[in-house]
Amino acid sequence: MGCSSCSTGKDGQPKGCQNNGTCGTDGCNKLTVFDWLSDVELPGGQEAFDCAEVRFKNSRKEFFRNTEKLTLSIGDIVATESSPGHDIGIVTLTGELVRVQMKKKKTDPESDEIAKIYRKASQKDIDVWQTAREREDAMKVKARQIAIRLKLKMKISDIEFQGDGSKAVFYYTAEERVDFRQLIKEFAYEFKTRIEMRQIGFRQEAARLGGIGSCGRELCCSTWLTDFRTVKTSAARYQQLSLNPLKLAGQCGKLKCCLNYELDTYLEALKDFPRQDQKLTTQKGDAVCQKIDIFKGKLWYAYEKEYNNWIELDTDAIKIILKAQRDKTPVASLEEFTSEIVPEKTAFENTVGQDSLTRFDKPKQKNPRNKRKSSKHKKSKRNNANS
């Protein structure tokens, strides 16, 4: 956690606030907007923007209108309009930057559908909110047991209580349509609260739960990624990656979002490459593309019926061959465009500190008894020789 107030525990060990995005210092939030206009005064006669950005559990953010003209600042806990009752959230942004964020999220600032901020939360509101949040983990375990007993093909990933404790939202994932009419009845009887089922995608589930990716870092969707773009297998083909589902899929079971990060760079580089399905016509025969290396700008071709013999060419040579092919004067062969490079022999030498693996071992001490025995044995041999 990045909070300055709860980042370490006893003996300097990492602690973490374990609030899952509801930290009062706003240090655990994903992509918190820095309010660089906080110290800038408004021009004379201009009123401050009457909307604020409020964050709830797991970085869920919504915009609310400050109709009561409350003096709000980042980190304030407020009671907001909800249906039914009210919800409790934390203010993450105020002022003119909220207008920019609303434009980015395609929300109309003049819309009448924007909910209101009722008041700043009292201590009683905060106590009810914290009590409801403490029930979520136990309810999640019980809810999963009920879903398994009813043999429903769904997974309940998270539960979020409303601030006043009057409603609980169950987030679930499912590949098919689920009939949970009986499930809601049992939930209402078991938990004694209003139930709302909300289906989310597998990527949204991974973003809410978090985790470590195959790269060793935290998941992008749970740290900074906010928009989930479509990822296709063609992105892996353009980058010359093996179509292995185990390597291309993330923790959500879908294709990794990072396949799109460098895709534009690869597409830009592939503009200088000829089409892979285009054959090269020579006097020796037609050649087919077998492999390309985008980083080196190399392509490997093989003659038809000689697929085991690959010939390495660069893009400039292929452009010459294709131009001759269009002029109907094909080149003699591909071999005349290859340059054989003799690999240099590398001489390995011992460097400082790497001359021996046993350089720090203590030398074996000779046994003085054996030395005495050897000297006695030599003397006896001399005596026998003299006699």
Explain the layout of strands and helices.
Elements: E1 51-55, E2 61-65, E3 77-81, E4 86-94, H1 96-104, E5 115-120, H2 123-134, H3 136-149, E6 155-161, E7 167-173, H4 181-191, E8 194-199, H5 202-209, H6 220-223, H7 233-238, H8 245-248, H9 263-269, E9 280-281, E10 286-293, E11 298-303, E12 310-314, H10 315-326, H11 368-386
Parallel strand pairs: 2-5, 7-8
Antiparallel strand pairs: 1-2, 1-4, 3-4, 3-5, 6-7, 9-10, 10-11, 11-12
Could you explain the architecture of this structure?
InterPro entries: PSP1-like, PSP1_C. With 387 residues, the chain is an alpha+beta fold. Among the domains are: 51-121, no CATH class; 127-200, GMP Synthetase, Chain A, domain 3; 219-272, no CATH class; 280-337, no CATH class. Helices cover 27% and strands 18% of the residues. It has helices at residues 96-104, 123-134, 136-149, 181-191, 202-209, 220-223, 233-238, 245-248, 263-269, 315-326, 368-386; strands at residues 51-55, 61-65, 77-81, 86-94, 115-120, 155-161, 167-173, 194-199, 280-281, 286-293, 298-303, 310-314. The strands form 3 sheets. A 5-stranded mixed beta barrel has the order 1-2-5-3-4. Strands 9-10-11-12 form a 4-stranded antiparallel sheet, covered by helices on one side. A hairpin with a 6-residue loop joins strand 11 (298-303) and strand 12 (310-314). It is extended and about 110 Å long. The mean pLDDT is 83.
